[in-house]
Queue: 3 jobs
Job 1
Amino acid sequence: MKKNILDYTKQELGEVLQPSFRAKQIYNWIYHKDAKSFDDMQNLPKEMRSKLKEAYTINPLQVIRKEASSDGSIKYLFQCEDGYTVETVLLPMKKEVKNEEGRVTKEAKYTICVSSQVGCKIGCAFCLTAKGGFKRDLSAGEIVAQVLNIKQDNNIAHNRRVNIVYMGMGEPLDNIENVTKAIQILNDIDGLAIGARRQTISTSGLSHQIEKLGKMNLGVLLAISLHAVDDALRDQLMPINKAYNIESVINAVKNFPIDQRKRVMFEYLVMKGLNDDIRSAKKLVKLLHGIKAKVNLIYFNPYPGSPFDRPDESDMIKLKEYLNAHGIICTIRQSKGLDISAACGQLKEKTANELH
Ligand code: SAH
Ligand code: SF4
């Protein structure tokens, strides 16, 4: 079987291809000039092009479904070479602004939410991805390809920086090797040049892996899916809490190296009648004491048969106001793309239901 060229860092490519400056040329072709085939790479010797063609593929993913939402977000379902499918979402964060002469005065801003695994082992009670079980890790190249395909499909210029969040399907720290490799490939100046500070890993809280990631000192940002402030409730919602309880997660965060200007994001998925009370907010304030944190409140997004309900807007606002009043930066995640079934795993599920 052919290898995927997107799996290679520039350095690795330089080691297998001689002379090594070819690696930089190939990176430029793939990431800057959108080459779709090795035949396009005109400054490579013909013989090298045909050898590359025999040994490598350029794109391991195929778009099999695409849904646009009224708020501008676009959700993709990609198929891997072995037939498994994963989701990726493009979230436009800010619209382009033009002046009277039609010149762009403010660039549009984008975030791409990528998947790290096919399925997930963690088994959170509220998550649709968990229902399908775990199939396999994505390779670094399959993670990079999600970003590359989406940038190309939306004509986002190669030098336009985007933000990456590892918040799609899967637990990124359960696939730490490939995820950190993808971060480095995406970071390459001859590639997409997406700085580590523009990339956020979201984790259900694998404390030992948070420590390991911290020691790698990549400069990547961290988001913690906390969702509950008591171990008893968190045990029920997220079985991983039995192995790594709230205290161990908080301690791991305290040891994590983070840029002075940045914060660790705590995601708090709010479910009606479960964790939407002020007592929980009070406890959250205590837990975050001494951490440069920000909190993102997320509306639970129901799906057919889901065991929880969407919280009331008034309770979300009360939570936000309480946290703000106690010195914690807090935002409510705008449910981007609710009409395209935006929460992770939901497009995949929909397609499966329609096909069977
Ligand atoms: N495994 C990692 C990253 C992927 S999950 C993690 O858990 O952090 C990304 C986010 O999707 C998590 O914060 C999770 O809480 C959220 N999510 C899962 N199911 C959801 C649902 N039904 N509604 C809203 N958000 C959901
Ligand atoms: Fe896995 Fe995250 Fe879903 Fe939990 S919320 S099952 S960790 S993808």
Job 2
Amino acid sequence: MPAIWDLPDFDSHEAVHVFDDRATGLRAVIAVHSTFLGPAAGGTRFWHYGDSQAAIIDALRLSRGMSYKNAMAGLSAGGGKAVILANPQRIKAQAMLDAFARAVDSLGGKYITAQDVGMSEADMVSLSKVTSHVAGLPEQGGDPGPYTARGVYLGVKAAAQHAFGTDSLSGVHVAIQGVGSVGGGLARYLAEQGAKLTLADVNAQRATDLAVELGGTSVPADEIMNIDADIFSPCALGAILTEASVRALKVRAVAGGANNQLATGSEGRILADRGILYAPDYVINAGGIINVLRHIENADDAQINRGIDAIPERLSAIWSESDSTGHTPAEVADNMAQKLIGR
Ligand code: NAD
């Protein structure tokens, strides 16, 4: 394994903390990408990684993403992320969570944690008994999914406006990959506006039930990226936009909530060359983190909603600059974010 500084995803992280607590079996990484705008904020992922290098790389990629996301959302927060390496049995023992909370606490507020894949709201409450550096507790807005869904809905609307010049979503055909917390919420907003929906989920029953409820259609999960639609909305996994999948898309815009949608980054150019508008993921999916972090600052609902309502404006600014410079929306967003964090 190369030295951590030589990993392609290192990107001048301010610090990468590695924890190993023999007594509880905790192994965790807390990556702090940037504290330029404030304490590094980002969730904790509990995941079974193939090896420890994969865990470190995931923490680095996610942490840099949080720097960009928080900066573009206008938050006074830097970017960080934690991963806990799940044991083979994937057992999340209380003693291990306590040890992790002590690890977060040992950074003295330089890193603020929140919920991510594999961690529940109850786990956040449990961490908060040991450290105060936890966001997204039930009294602070709780589950970020509905807020993310609203931001993604506003972003999809903005994409329709930019790509088709329409203010109405009536009849606009949106293919949604993954109808969980974010994708399901998005589908409901879109149905209210009269959009035509095609839904898919690896949990096929979930997609079928929602399609029946909302008057849409469901298709098998492996078909959703080949649907002839207006907008493709990825709301499941990251890295789904590969060279091959982008070449096969039959849509005019991609706007969805999943993190890290571009598999390598270069797919942004293929999208642009194919005339497919792209909504950079960390800009369109910031609703949840806006809610979580603004709550800590004691913002009220109106202030939080204004932050989420500004997502379309941010996307429009990116698309306008992309149109005038020829840089892809992903490049424009990255450049804007880097400037904001002083890089
Ligand atoms: P979720 O677990 O509630 O829903 C994900 C859904 O996707 C599930 O129904 C799952 O069965 C389905 N799915 C998984 N693999 C699939 C595949 N290959 N094809 C089709 N469906 C598949 O998760 P969520 O909270 O809705 O998050 C969805 C995405 O949005 C993730 O990438 C997440 O990182 C990102 N995101 C979520 C939030 C949030 O606030 N929840 C915020 C920012 C980004």
Job 3
Amino acid sequence: MSKTVEVLPDLASLIHRGLELSLAEIKSAIAERGQCTLALAGGGTPKPLYEALATQDLPWEKIQIFWGDERYVPPDDSDSNQRMARQAWLDQVPIPVANLHPIPTDEADPAVAAQKYEQHLQAFFGIAPGEFPALDLIFLGIGNDGHTASLFPHTEALQVCDRLITVGNKDGQPRITFTVPLINQARCVMFLVAGESKQPALEQIFAPEAEASDYPARFIQPTGKLLWLLDQPAGNRLKP
Ligand code: 6PG
């Protein structure tokens, strides 16, 4: 694993840097393997990056889009990560429908939806149960509590190590999420973190010693590149 931490002056420069690095990862994946497999983060921080990616002239037919987590709501719900990414980016570019792999949220039991998404990934990557595919680029954010994807502090999802997808739990609300081992298999993980409210969690995530179940982003130690892009308000007190 190679870990890089960049603190950018403001959100605009964080997004600009995120675009630069994302394009580099996308283009090298396509050059090396003929396609790029991407997993999107939800929340608000990545939205301007998705809007910037929508302005790029890319070989969209070679880009495969997954979601790293999803709220358990219909795709047209204002809370939906799929809806946010489609409005900001995916509905604005000629990416084939078949290249979009949204997380199903229409099963009565979220565990069934998680299993369906896992089977979809296994079929797409041509892997057997127990194997973990390496996505080319996974975008992540962190919450003020140090969660990432839908891996929330002190939840069962943090311990799932034999599956690709599991059910997360945010204050009793189900979420569908990539598991820690699936994220850690990625060739590149890019955290995008902005705002002073994230500073306390970042200090714990970067501390030499802290309980990972208190700050789940500590579990993210990918085999590939780990890029942290922070704006000044989030990262200015971090010890290098
Ligand atoms: C989600 C995200 C989640 C997000 C953090 C940060 O579904 O909400 O995947 O992990 O990245 O909560 O959200 P903000 O970028 O809005 O601060």
